[in-house]
# Entry
Amino acid sequence: MALCTEQGASWFLARNRILLGWALADEVPVDGLKQIQEGIAAGRATGSELDTPLWLCLLADAQGRAGQ
# Structure
């Protein structure tokens, strides 16, 4: 994530944030869900919608595991 920030690769940074949140969702659901939601917003802010369906599936999966 640091390299993405350093290089200005905002789309990759958003994707990394989503994957980090998805991985964290089992241990710390609130933080994991927040990371995913912020990552989705950041990814959409780049203008790319390419992986949005996948990102939303990861969010739904994390929400289900969190009992939401």
Observations:
- The mean pLDDT is 92.
- The chain has four helices and no strands.
- The radius of gyration is 12 Å.
